[in-house]
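Example 3.
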Amino acid sequence: MSEVCFYDVRVIDGTSTSIVLDNGNIEEISVNYSRGCGVRALCGGSWGFTTAEGNFDINDAISSASELAQQMNNISPKEKVELKPMEEPVLKDLPVATIDPKDIPIEDKVQLLKDIDSHAKIDGISSTSAVYSEASVKIQYINSEGIDCEYDLIRTGFAISAVASEGGAYQVGRESRFGVSGYELFEKNDVFALAESAGRTAVELLGAKQAKGGTLPVILDPELAGVFAHEAVGHASEADLVLEGSSILAGRIGEQIASPLISIIDDPTIHEYGYYPFDSEGVRSSKTTIIKDGTLNSYLHSRETAAALGGEPGNCRAQGYSAPIVRMSNTYIDNGNSNFDEMLEEVKDGMYLTGSRGGQVNTGEGIFQFNAEKGYLIENGEVTTLLRDVSLSGKTLEILNNVTLVGNDLKMHSGRCGKGGQLAPVSDGSPHISISKALVGGA
Amino acid sequence: MFDLAEKTLKIAEQLGADEAEVFIIHSRSITADIKKNTIESAKERGSEGIGIRTIVNGAVGFASTNIVERIDEAVKVAVASAKVRESDPEWTSLPSNSKYPKVSGTFDKKIDELGLDECISLTGEMINGALSVPDINTTSGSFSTTISKQLIMNTNGVEVIDEGTGVSGFVDVITTDGDISTAYDFEVSRSLDIDTFNIGKNAADLAIRSQNGISIEPQKTNVILHPFAFSDILGNTFEPSIDADNVQKGRSSLIGKIDESIATSELTIIDDGTLHAGMETSISDEEGTPSQRTTLIEKGVFRSYLYDNYTAGKGKTTSTGNGIRHSYSSTPSVGSRNLIIDYPQSDVIGETDEGVFINTVIGAHTANAISGDFSVEARNAFTIKDGKIDKPIKSLMLSGNIFEMLNNITGAGTDVRKVGGTVTPPLKVANMSIVG
């Protein structure tokens, strides 16, 4: 039987607390203590992977992953997998939690969340829900090449949603902030104003008109354009998808694929929600320019995809003990130099889409769909009627080429991204952008 | 398992809990993953953990862990967080010991005994099936088996242990020649009876048939939704609206609609936790309430919401056995079990002169779960002409409202599929709005 040529181990210790309020009443307070590991072993071209929880023996876990890899390689031998060489990561500039949430009594956290909740309950709101979450995690990484490193990270955040209803119609407004920071997150953000804004959105949407579908010029706000950058472009630039043949961006490095106004960047080093000092392969994080002035510049890589396609690793991430895969971190469209008024003038008659209710993408065909929280008609260069249930869909490359102006007001939003059944904390963002032609769907 | 559970309950009572409950799960799964026509990796995952609910003076606390040494600490935290809360007047009590139904088809010894080599060969069959169609690559996919054992024990005498198996096969394919087109197919089962070769072949056939799609004009027409498309929309619109928790909080369009007609008179929808070989079948739900069969829509008339133990107490009714946990680290909440969609079946495509057939949709999770409005991108869609599938459609947005849809169902096909817990035929809906 062939020998195992590589293995690595991630040991994760975590404590998390969440508080859920419903209509201002505590619905749940939940605390979790967990410890587990994910172990990979490589034999030839076959990966073996095991997880263990609680009290495990690291050597046992390595042995079982190794056996799986060896068995796999025997039954279904394939071309040897190469891993791009890496260095021991140097940790610096880690986010510092000035207020450790552990030091705040649970009663205070409950009170803060109740205060946030009450700010969302403006006139016209029939119900609210609010969530507080904190998690502290210690991640240790070791591999058969002698790398041994670890870091601690604290993440906190909250989400609020408000429902307005009238005559059997319902509308929801949501706001949230999550970050790699301690309890000071609640001081750095005007959380009460955010809660009020969630309430206002719901109330306004109740009175909004249904959108009429069609192909139109549009302006996207930083949140929605950020979702586009993440969903439509970011996922297609993940090198595992490129290698398996399900990315529209395969084989296009160096090609002009977007308007020269567009640069898209993934940067895990900035202290946003998608931050990490080293990834789940122990590779130190670094900034990647995916699209540079309209030209496809780089994919996002793991050590395996970087060796296969050429590129730099550092974007391999895992949820908990799961097997790491190529993921984004903090992904954004870089600032241009236009302002919103110039965009209105450019668009003249079209639609202004703001906020996001999520989206999906088919990276193989380069098609995406996502729903805006709100839409506004743009008539004769002015923002006029509010619209609800507006969705945007189309071909990624067409949209990228149809960008006519890029603003200078970049803003990031935190969220969680799902891929392969795993959720990862990420952020995405953009300045306002205007697009000459996009397919807008209504109800 | 039993000893640990009993010990944990004792600690909770000693710390002052009036009631306490432990949920322990042990599960093991083997997965073989496909990447670009090869089987790339083998995974063996073991998971075990304990969730502890404690009730002090009508307030509930919860903590969980997978570390045996920290169970005591978790119980302490659960009791302490219950004490932080004000007493909840809606809280009644944890479920009591009851009579449990017999269920069948939920454990297959063959899955328990399946080795990695057999998993790999079944995964290989999925690739072979796809590649039996020319000009196709499998981009990704997986085959996996799961065995899990869970115990629910509480201080009211509930002591339920349930063991089950599951198997699933999934594959994603793309065309390699001419127009790029993708498709996927999957199957799930409680026993080792899925045909993995067919999963691959079906996905490949669909991708090839979807090539060179045409554009169509915006219109209102008959739409036939494949079980994948229908269950995706249903799960994001109808299911949240029958959840008693949403109803009690004013977040459902079905508030006050009991015994009213909400759907076409030939449609019946049943939630059944006891369905033979159902993906969500077990003797009890995940807080120890016996599984049951609940009629949600009976010949068009809305009959019941779904309740877990808490919402049943609050609604002064009994739990329908729909207390579901996502993992040991989460508290129970309302969730459907096996959702069975029943409508008289016929050759639904053959009877359609003009319309559209949609296999899958993307973006169903962006639907408005309260109003039931949705706007999704249809994938692998085709025009129907004179009773036959005619041409593929390149790009299509489907918009509508689930409650209007339930009234506009005019037919069902014969190919019933298990999509997770949802068991449904393809359904034909009249007068749906599409934008090409």
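Chain A has two domains: 6-206, 210-441. Chain A has a mean pLDDT of 95.
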